């Protein structure tokens, strides 16, 4: 075997080990065990109304109320350091832009420092509302069912303000988002 072939085989082996290690780590995260909520924290179950939630707009800092009746909503928790979150944002944006004025409202909630989220979001042309919340054991993602502490995490809310279902992980495309949100989309 010549030197070039040895380098190719060596690089292939290193890549395979790295890919295997990354796959193992992702598998641990996706299948992370659910953790009990902190004492006194009430977790909303499917069919129950969302607890009151007011978060600051990512760009303007203005408070936005998200609980209660109104349009159906898809709340998506993300962070700029989260690769699957970054990959998923275009699918959420395409879905959001496909919705009629009374359709599903997509709301992105950055679970990180506002300055970091703002800097990342400035590079994107997202057509949906972006909010920010400090991450922690009592953040709204945990109250709405994120018992694994994973991102991205999505919450589907009906027009009456009741939790319909949750989703761990990234959506691949707008069609997958639409299929997942189908229980709250209007047929008229």
Describe the structure.
It is found in: Cell envelope. The protein has 188 residues and is an alpha/beta fold. It folds into 2 domains: 1-31; 54-184, Glutaredoxin (3-Layer(aba) Sandwich). 34% of the residues lie in helices and 19% in strands. The protein contains 5 helices and 7 strands. The protein has helices at 3-30, 83-98, 114-121, 140-143, 174-181, and strands spanning 54-57, 63-65, 73-78, 105-111, 129-133, 153-157, 163-168. It has a 7-stranded mixed β-sheet, covered by helices on one side. The radius of gyration is 19 Å and the shape is globular. It starts with a helix and ends in a 7-residue tail after the last helix.
Please describe the topology of this protein.
Blueprint: H1 3-30, E1 54-57, E2 63-65, E3 73-78, H2 83-98, E4 105-111, H3 114-121, E5 129-133, H4 140-143, E6 153-157, E7 163-168, H5 174-181
Parallel strand pairs: 3-4, 4-5
Antiparallel strand pairs: 1-2, 1-5, 3-6, 6-7
Helix pairs in contact: 2-5
Keywords: Cytochrome c-type biogenesis, Redox-active center
GO molecular function: disulfide oxidoreductase activity
Pfam families: Redoxin
CATH architecture of the largest domain: 3-Layer(aba) Sandwich
Query: How many alpha or pi helices?
Result: 5
How many strands, what sense, and barrel or not for the largest sheet?
7 strands, mixed
- Could you state the order of secondary-structure elements as H and E? HEEEHEHEHEEH
**Overall form:** globular
Secondary structure category:
alpha/beta
Task: Note the gap between the termini.
Answer: 68 Å
- Strand arrangement within the widest β-sheet reads 2-1-5-4-3-6-7
Using only C-alpha atoms, the radius of gyration works out to 19 Å
Subcellular location: Cell envelope
Organism: Arenimonas composti TR7-09 = DSM 18010
Main location: other
Keywords: Cytochrome c-type biogenesis, Redox-active center
